Amino acid sequence: MELVDRLLKGDKRAAARLITLAENRSEEAVKALQLVHAHTGGAHIIGVTGPPGGGKSTVVDRLAKEFRKKDKTIGIIAVDPSSPFTGGALLGDRIRMSDLSLDENVFIRSMGTRGSLGGLARATGDTINFLDALGKDVIIVETVGAGQAEIDIVKVSHTVLIITVPGLGDDIQAIKAGMMEIGDIFVVNKADRGGAEKKAAEIEMMLDLNAKSNGWKPPVLQTNARDGDGIKELFESIIKHRQYLEKSDLLQEKLAEKAKTDIINILNEWVEDFCIGEFGGGELEGLVSKVIERELDPYTAADTILNKIKKDEQSCNIRGI
Ligand SMILES: Nc1nc2c(ncn2[C@@H]2O[C@H](COP(=O)(O)OP(=O)(O)O)[C@@H](O)[C@H]2O)c(=O)[nH]1
Ligand SMILES: [Mg+2]
Predict the structure, then answer these.
(1) Mutational pocket test of ligand 1: of 58, 90, 164, 223, the residue with most ligand atoms within 8 Å of the beta carbon
(2) Ligand 2 centroid distance, CA of 93 (Å)
(3) Cα Rg of the chain, angstroms
(4) What CA–CA distance (Å, rounded) separates 287 from 293?
């Protein structure tokens, strides 16, 4: 496949094209992903999440520059909500990162959030794989830490950064709801505003309560990303975490988790496609009304669909397998 050959030679435009194909769930993208899989696994994937406005993009921009100083090539994936209210933020991200985007060795991509959340997780995963195959040493994925979908996206990263800011009482709630377990490094950004120490202490306390048994104690760092304070320490922590992953069994565990998530995301999306496609001719609606009328229970309805998928050899061919 010509696009894949070009991608493997480091052609950014081929990468951009393939990512668009993956976003549009094209058959060609599936074929390309099958071909590139053997050429992936070399990149260090860093997930960055936290509340909107917390300084994620600013931190990512600073970190990318630190990696560039070490001559590492970078991919940056910004996953932003499709809400029209945040339409400007996408553009803002691009502008702020403009000096990075002029760098030949940095590839920046914003992901649209059309379609299902499972679809977004899958498309982000595909993008990571294409950038990995493109030869990027480090891939940074930024998502708004609003809910489970974002957690699902970043938890496949090798190193997960959770960014918070001083104040924001409900932010700690958000951390409680699932983020504590996935964070490898915690960052209290906007430390210039005061209250950062208190916030860091709160996080330390919660980490003690949720102590992991995997031997890595997540550091809690304070940064002022706007001025660059604390970024060196953060960068060093990321390198340390990477080294820890390589020395321990943790990397294998994370890779297994990622492979599992990849397979499940793909399956979920296929089943969803199948329901809308094959069953779209009124069949799904037929099952839905039967469930409402209490003629059928939802388990039997799902089983009907599953049986049809089992019998339908076409469903695999359609997707290029
Ligand atoms: N005072 C202060 N402002 C910051 C800091 N980091 C980022 N900002 C500002 O906070 C705003 C939101 O930052 P951004 O990186 O877009 O946040 P994101 O939505 O989490 O990606 C921008 O105006 C940044 O310049 C910081 O450490 N201190
Ligand atoms: Mg941002």
Answers:
(1) 58
(2) 6
(3) 21
(4) 10
Alpha helix (H) residue ranges in 155-195: 169-174, 180-182
Which residues form the pocket of ligand 1, taking CB atoms under 6 Å from any ligand atom?
52-58, 189-190, 192-193, 224-226
Long-range contacts of 233-242 (CB under 8 A, 24+ apart): 234/59, 234/63, 234/161, 234/185, 234/187, 235/63, 235/66, 235/67, 237/185, 238/46, 238/63, 238/159, 238/161, 238/185, 241/159, 241/184, 241/185, 241/216, 242/44, 242/158, 242/159
Instruction: Report the pLDDT value the prediction gives residue 89, as an integer from 0 to 100.
Output: 44
Q: Which run of H or of E encompasses 76?
A: strand 74-79
How far away, in angstroms, is 189 Cα from ligand 1 center? 8
Question: In this structure, which ligand is nearest to the CA of 49?
Answer: 1
Using the mean position of ligand 1's atoms as its centre, give its distance from the Cα of residue 126 in Å.
28
- Nearest CA, atom 13, ligand 1: 55
* Dist. CA 144 → ligand 2 center (Å): 7
Model confidence over 94-153: pLDDT tens digits? 555 557 878 889 999 888 755 566 677 788 889 999 999 999 999 999 987 666 767 777
Asked if residue 32 lies in contact with residue 125, where contact means CB atoms within 8 angstroms, the answer is: no
Q: What integer pLDDT is reported at residue 61 of this predicted model?
A: 92
Rounded-to-integer distance, Cα 214 and Cα 274, Å: 39
Residues bordering ligand 2, an ion, CB closer than 5 Å: 56-57
Q: What pLDDT is attached to residue 144?
A: 77
Query: What's the maximum distance between 2 C-alpha atoms anywhere in the chain?
Result: 65
